[in-house]
TrEMBL record:
Protein known as: Citrate synthase
Entry annotation: catalytic residues: H348, D404
Keyword terms: Transferase, Tricarboxylic acid cycle
GO molecular function: acyltransferase activity, acyl groups converted into alkyl on transfer
Organism ancestry: Eukaryota, Fungi, Dikarya, Basidiomycota, Agaricomycotina
Recorded coiled-coil stretches: none
Gene3D superfamilies: Citrate Synthase, domain 1, Cytochrome P450-Terp, domain 2
Similarity comment: family membership: Belongs to the citrate synthase family.
Record-level GO BP terms: tricarboxylic acid cycle
Protein's UniProt keywords contain Transferase: yes
Entry superkingdom: Eukaryota
PANTHER family, A to Z: CITRATE SYNTHASE
Keyword Flavoprotein: no
Organism in which the protein naturally occurs: Suillus discolor
Length: 507
């Protein structure tokens, strides 16, 4: 840890003085926005020490190690700011609480992508473009029907975004030239228009694809996105619509319930962006090699799906169901502390206090429960929440509820199947992803491929051993050989029979 100089000796200089104790050389590292450039350290070189391996490349400059990106900034962004110690989240400077209360999801989407809250005419243009791009080629029906009957909707949605890219050759830098989008940064209006068209498509079709993934499992026909509804109303309609003439009726008889549509709109606003989370990073990482944006969004879906990220809302409900009732909460928390179980919906890389979105969600939950009735799982959730917040294990690690702790309860109350919850996260997050992607494409300094480094700890150079001379004896440790797996149903049945004591000798 650094030693503090006396105030009299302190002359403010935006730099860091570093001494390399291997060589005695001193370096001055510039500080910009309270960050130091990792690449500077590449210039700090030394002769290899006695313990260095050739693969450490000591003479070629120091590397910066940051497993899991704990403290690495990868982009300059003007979109979202999180102050995790104080529970603050702002989109383009606006506090999330104000946006959730006063703006619609598409208004917030405009803000995230274009940097300012839209005027009425800007909002109307953006809304009509997004909704106009909702319908999808009828061939997509065959695509969705090709999945197995019990496919997870996230598998379908992830594939669907990549599939969508196959329709739009004009959005593919591999076909049109690699500066297809990046030339927008130099003021090319056609490139900018092309980029925005893909953005309208991605946001407009996100609900269509999600609804198709939902309906295919219900054995229902697909629905053309309706007109005359908001983005979230249209989504609910596409999920639930039954009669082919619904949308023609004057009264819109099965227009979604206003409280539920409003609740979903707020949830979408809360999920629209969250700066450099795992999936946005994945979208940018993928986007940095300049594929079409549909492929980048598909990669984002895959990243979001995991239970540590957007799959946590599904994991929370599975966890609450497994706990069963408030009386089982203490035993569950003990198992978490022994690292036998995971407390889903708690903890966050950035927030070291309650996630500000979780307070807004709890208010929304009350409004939803007033319509749908109270979910009995809520009692277990409350008991778990209260007990964890009083327990030193969680308090000392600054583990507090995140957005996913509550969102699943609302989705469940609204009648969504559990495995659809991550989809309800993806749909709004497409907006954040495209906002970051667009910002990167418009970067005045161009797009740099995201290609991190590694610390290679594997074998140094060694000579090839012919097959008949290999013993396999040096392969020690977990996962050093392919696992032995059973293949046929016959093998499985034989094992069952053995277990039941019906087969005494090995066949
Ligand atoms: N339950 C129990 N212990 C936890 C939890 C948890 N949910 N989260 C973190 N810890 C412990 C962790 O074991 C570690 O303890 P120790 O220092 O003794 O080893 C300490 O807290 C620090 O945690 P970490 O693993 O270094 O934290 P991280 O920043 O690498 O991981 C996280 C963040 C969100 C992946 C993690 O907190 C977690 O797995 N939470 C549960 C999954 C979840 O709710 N994810 C949704 C995140 S919010 C929505 C989104 O943006 O996706």
């Amino acid at each position: 840890m650094g030693k503090q100089l006396p105030a009299s000796e302190l002359k403010r200089d935006e730099s860091l003085r570093v001494v390399d104790n291997r060589t005695g050389k001193e370096y001055t590292v510039p500080i910009t926005h309270n960050s130091i450039p990792a690449n500077f350290f590449k210039g700090i070189r030394a002769a290899p020490g006695p313990n260095d391996r050739p693969e450490d490349e000591t003479e070629r400059g120091l590397r910066v190690a940051d497993r899991g990106f704990l403290n690495t900034t990868v982009i300059e962004s003007r979109i979202t700011y999180i102050d995790g110690d104080n529970g603050i989240l702002r989109y383009r400077g606006y506090p999330i609480e104000q946006l959730a209360e006063r703006s619609s999801f598409l208004e917030v989407s405009y803000l995230l992508i274009y940097g300012a809250l839209p005027s009425p005419s800007q909002l109307s243009h953006f809304t009509s473009e997004v909704l106009l791009h909702g319908p999808i080629h009828s061939d997509a029906e065959g695509f969705f029907r090709s999945f197995r009957y019990d496919a997870h909707p996230m598998s379908m949605l992830t594939s669907a975004f990549a599939y969508l890219g196959s329709y739009y050759g004009e959005a593919n830098p591999s076909l049109q030239g690699q500066d297809l989008f990046t030339k927008a940064a130099k003021g090319d209006p056609v490139a900018l228009q092309n980029m925005d068209r893909q953005i309208f498509r991605l946001i407009g079709k996100a609900t269509t694809l999600a609804a198709m993934a939902y309906r295919v499992r219900q054995g229902r026909d697909f629905v053309v996105p309706p007109t005359g509804m908001s983005y979230t109303e249209s989504f609910l309609y596409q999920l639930d619509h039954l009669s082919p003439t619904d949308h023609l009726s004057e009264s819109h008889s099965n227009k979604p319930h206003p409280v539920l549509a409003k609740a979903l709109d707020i949830l979408f606003t809360l999920h629209a962006d969250h700066e450099m989370n795992a999936s946005s990073t994945t979208v940018l990482q993928t986007g940095s090699s300049l594929p079409d944006p549909f492929s980048a969004v598909a990669a984002g879906c895959a990243s979001l799906y995991g239970p540590l990220h957007g799959g946590a809302n599904e994991a929370v409900i599975r966890m609450l169901l497994s706990i069963g009732s408030p009386k089982n909460v203490p035993a569950f928390l003990d198992a978490v502390k022994k690292r036998q179980k995971v407390l889903s919906g708690f903890g966050h890389r950035v927030y070291k206090t309650s996630d500000p979105r979780s307070f807004i969600i709890r208010k929304v939950a009350d409004e939803v429960f007033a319509v749908t009735g109270r979910d009995p799982l809520l009692d277990t959730a409350m008991a778990l929440h209260d007990a964890a917040l009083k327990d030193d294990y969680f308090v000392s690690r600054k583990l507090a509820p995140n957005v996913d702790f509550w969102s699943g309860l609302i989705y469940r109350a609204m009648g969504f199947p559990m495995d659809f919850f991550p989809v309800l996260f993806v749909v709004p997050r497409v907006v954040g992803w495209v906002a970051h992607w667009r910002q990167m494409m418009l970067s005045p300094s161009g797009v740099k491929i995201w290609r991190p480094r590694q610390l290679y700890l594997g074998p140094s150079t060694r000579d090839y051993v012919p097959l008949d001379e290999r013993t396999g004896a040096f392969q020690v440790g977990v996962g050093m050989e392919p696992s032995v797996i059973e293949h046929s149903g016959m093998t499985k049945r034989r094992k069952l029979a053995e277990a039941a004591g019906k087969v005494t000798s090995k066949l």
